[in-house]
DNA sequence: TGTCTATGTTGACGTCTGTCGAATCAAGTG
DNA sequence: CACTTGATTCGACAGACGTCAACATAGACA
């Protein structure tokens, strides 16, 4: 029901390892290596179908959804599978087969890292 | 050239107020229209060269830099111009010619809207 | 076993994208 | 004016991308 705000991915904000690939975009110019890493993630979300799939998974109850629940995005089933694979390869989703269905789940740390990239916070820490 | 243009990511709702194009990715599944808008922005940052250029501008003094200061990213000058144009078309940068040089500047509100997309925190900001 | 449903993989096709060299435009200087 | 430097546009090309139909695979169930 209330899947807003109670997602498991918003819990870890304390002192957990979040794999900080890069500093905020506004902190200093990215190196070529940092840009390569970060661009891979942005690129994965740079397609409308993938963005809808990712959003569908992320907003689903428990931050997890089976393909059957999110595959109504206007493209064929193989295309859905193709995009889910891309999101998985980009490290944004993980998948797990449980019986008949395959469940996809967001990677909270990556989402947090991406959000930090776009943070304008001075963060003089 | 023009410094005031309608940014794709923001919908003007008043004199100065702007509203984000989309809710956080985790709030609810994106509609096709929202995904189209947001994906355009992610796509613009989905290239390493563009990401470096954007980061270079965003981290430069005053959030502004001339092309001559940021064009050392390993590609030819036409390619740099090509990518800057893409970032501009995506609404992430604005440009202005002052004498000999052309200065690019980040759009803070757009950056904030992007960050909000990836924010898991509740809306009570 | 066999069949049905749910996903993933393969191969192919048209389109988009990143890149460069050359030409062009814009502004300053002599 | 001609000349130089900074920046964009043009034309072309190789490679990547999104899409689908067809096929393959995994599990459930009779």
Question: Can you tell me about this structure?
Answer:
- 2 copies of one chain form a homodimer.
- Chain A has 125 residues and is α+β, with helices and mostly antiparallel strands.
- The first copy, chain A, has helices at residues 32-44, 48-59, 67-70, 77-89, 108-117, and strands at residues 64-66, 93-98, 101-106.
- The first copy, chain A, has one domain: Arc Repressor Mutant, subunit A.
- In chain A, strand 2 and strand 3 (101-106) form a beta hairpin.
- Chain A is 42% helix and 12% strand.
- At the A-B interface, helix 1, helix 2 and helix 5 of A face helix 1, helix 2 and helix 5 of B.
- Chain A binds a DNA duplex (30 and 30 nucleotides) through helix 4.
